[in-house]
Amino acid sequence: MTIRVRALSCVLAVAALATAGVVPAAAQRTYVVGSSATYPPFAYENAQKQIVGFDVDVINAIAAKAGIRVRLVNTPFVGIFASLNNGDIDLVVSGVTINERRRQSYDFTTPYFEARQLLAVPASSTVTRLQDLAGKKIAVVTGSTGDDVASKAFGKTSANIRRFDTTPLIIAELANGGVDAAIGDNGVIAYRVREHKTLKTVDDASMAKEYFGIAVKQGNAALRDTLNKGLAAIIADGTYATIYRTWFKSEPPTLPKP
Fold this sequence. Notes:
The structure is a single chain. By secondary structure, the chain is an alpha/beta fold. The chain has two domains: 26-114 and 211-248, D-Maltodextrin-Binding Protein, domain 2 (3-Layer(aba) Sandwich), CATH 3.40.190; 117-202, D-Maltodextrin-Binding Protein, domain 2. The chain is 36% helix and 22% strand. α2 (54-66) crosses α8 (221-236) and α2 packs antiparallel against α9 (239-248). It is globular. 36% of the residues are buried.
């Protein structure tokens, strides 16, 4: 068999497999997932420097159901959307809240987690709601929903809003007395506060429910739809509920449908 004939045979074989819905492993694309591994229990590095957490288990389960390959890359949250824009990563799974501002620049899957903002304050604090933080120093993660909440309540340019790269940094700043409060997503704030006996959380009932979604480049409907199918599948077969119970020790809420 000549080289040309062998090459043509290989092309035809791959085409036949693709038509049958089977793509050889070597021909499958690996999608790069950006996730900030400083966000337990959603994503963090274990002792072996592996990225683990709720988000990691969810995206791996989605990928398995959707029949795609994924590779996680530890990407600082402050630059995670720039990495998506530049094509360094294909999707973002990093506790990203779906909001209208982000929808203008990115496409999101259906929600995979229900969240709300939570306040962290010293154990002796008398703060009971967001508005009690007026005039106080507040730590937030740059570009996060907590940043949006503080900016809306007290002004984006307020000198009292201190911005940091990660949640551990805002909790450390609070524990060290550098700020009076920190604002962030309920799951990770509660997790971090448990590590500091001198701190407590405050749940302001006025905080609206929010939802995390997987972000892809705007217009990448094919990848978004593939991820949505995988997400729907793991919710339907109970895989999602098992993952949720593992990390949050409770039953998952009912998530909005498309």
